[in-house]
Design brief:
The protein has helices at 31-37, 49-59, 76-79, 85-99, 114-118, 121-132, 152-161, 181-193, 227-235, 248-262, 267-292, 306-317, 331-340, 353-363, 372-380, 390-393, 402-421, and strands spanning 15-19, 41-47, 69-73, 105-110, 137-142, 172-176, 199-202, 217-221, 239-240, 296-299, 320-326, 346-351, 367-370, 385-387. By secondary structure, the protein is an alpha/beta fold. The strands form 3 sheets. The protein has a 6-stranded parallel beta sheet, sandwiched between helices. The chain has a 4-stranded parallel beta sheet with strand order 3-2-4-5.
């Protein structure tokens, strides 16, 4: 099921495809939000000390904390071939599960060191699942920076779960994507008020609540970077509901409307449920839009959220997208979003960071959305930047968050104006 929107935007626009040096976080970063959504899961990264330092720094974990992730570090004897890596992994997993009996789902997460790439972690997961069944299910996915950007870690994790989901025969709506609990509650409340259900969520909070999947399963993505999960669900026979993503009042309404159409919800009930939160969302955005209207924005590829965010900033905040870069452009998932982008926007897929920096400098946008590694150098050159990673870690979906979402982009511009008025202090 797809939302029927006029093809007047960028759906057929040419795309600048680049394959060069990238500047992105790796997929291991997704563990930071995934482990909070699954309290009975543990993410064991098979990697180096660099992987461990990245996760510790990103999560701000204290030495006395009991996080639900860790790193099986390859030591010198492993790299020298003096130890059997699979035996070492089995031993470490057994120690972990003995220490943490609350673990029901264990994810072996691959990383980018060459010795890790040589390991068959998929086979290791199968072997360990047999050893520790039925108490623990062991799964595997790659978070390697060679293969993934940071949001693709979530996509790889959820896609790894799909083949093991139980079969389902009844008609259900599966909501796909890890959202902050407060946002997930808002989503459930809206859909329940519309009379839509039963509702299931992937990832499930605990293993015992894992959703079933079958030909009567309709699914809607809440995040735009879940292309592999989308494909895995379709292989299981589930039916997709394609729509703009629920960022801003317009995107949220279109997303809900697409689902409501599948469930046969009439316009009167839809209006009764959504009218008040839609009005609140519009008022909240209007309070920020005065700062954003008419400003030019440039997106470096980082999270795969760039196209929906550019649509929101353009249509609801009055900004002018100059270039919208994304690590990977999934045409099916982005079709409705591309229809709503203004014509003339430069779309780019992939990255050659030096060439894109040249285009950004020539465009001289008012605001540049980029990764942390580029933000400080660009600020030093006089450009105003927004950290892309903050858009993933902040609640930004559905009707109660559009004002906060717009505010994330407005604050750097206000800071720039305050500094300018203070003489550049």
């Amino acid at each position: 099921m797809s939302l029927d929107l006029p093809a007047t935007g960028c759906r057929t626009a040419p795309v600048l495809r680049e394959r060069g040096q990238r500047e992105v976080f790796c997929g291991l970063t997704a563990i930071i939000w995934l482990h909070r959504k699954m309290p009975d899961a543990f993410f064991l990264v098979v990697g180096s000390r660099t992987c461990a330092h990245l996760l510790q720094a990103a999560a701000g974990v204290m030495i006395f904390a009991e996080p639900r992730f860790g790193t099986a570090i390859l030591e010198e004897k492993d790299l020298a071939g003096l130890a059997d890596a699979n035996q070492e992994l089995d031993r470490e997993v057994a120690r972990l599960l003995a220490r943490r009996p609350d673990i029901r789902r264990l994810f072996l997460v691959g990383s980018c060191p060459s010795e890790v790439i040589k390991l068959d972690l998929a086979r290791a997961a199968e072997r360990l699942s047999v050893q520790h069944a039925p108490r623990v299910m062991v799964l595997n996915y790659s978070g390697s920076g060679i293969e993934t950007t940071f949001t693709q870690g979530e996509d790889a994790c959820l896609a790894a779960m799909v083949p093991g989901l139980p079969p389902a025969t009844q008609r259900e709506l599966l909501l796909v994507g890890a959202l902050p609990d407060v946002v997930e509650d808002q989503m459930r409340a809206l859909l329940t008020d519309l009379g839509i259900g039963p509702l299931r969520v992937l990832p499930a909070h605990v293993a015992d609540q894992a959703p079933g999947v079958g030909p009567q399963t309709w699914f809607a993505l809440t995040q735009p970077f879940l292309g592999d999960t989308h494909a895995a669900l379709m292989r299981r026979g589930a039916q997709p509901i394609l729509a703009p993503f629920p960022f801003g009042e317009e995107g949220t309404t279109a997303w809900l409307r697409a689902i409501a159409d599948v469930w046969g919800v009439g316009p009167d009930r839809f209006e009764a449920v959504t009218a008040a939160p839609r009005a609140r969302a519009r008022r909240a955005v209007a309070a920020q839009a005065a700062t954003l209207a008419g400003k030019r924005v440039f997106f470096f590829p980082d999270s795969q959220m760039e196209i929906p965010l550019a649509r929101f900033l353009s249509r609801e905040c009055g900004m002018i997208p100059v270039e919208v870069g994304t690590p990977y452009l999934h045409r099916d998932l982005m079709a409705a979003e591309l229809d709503l982008l203004p014509a003339g926007v430069t779309l780019s897929e992939g990255q050659d960071v030096d060439l894109q920096l040249d285009r950004q400098a020539a465009a001289a946008p008012d605001l540049t959305v980029c990764g942390l590694g580029l933000a400080n150098p660009l600020e030093a050159q006089g450009f105003t930047t927004k950290w892309a990673i903050e858009l993933v870690f902040t609640p930004v979906h559905f009707y109660e968050q559009p004002g906060d979402l717009a505010g994330l982009f407005a604050r750097p511009l206000r800071r720039r104006d305050i500094l300018a008025q203070g003489g550049g202090a």
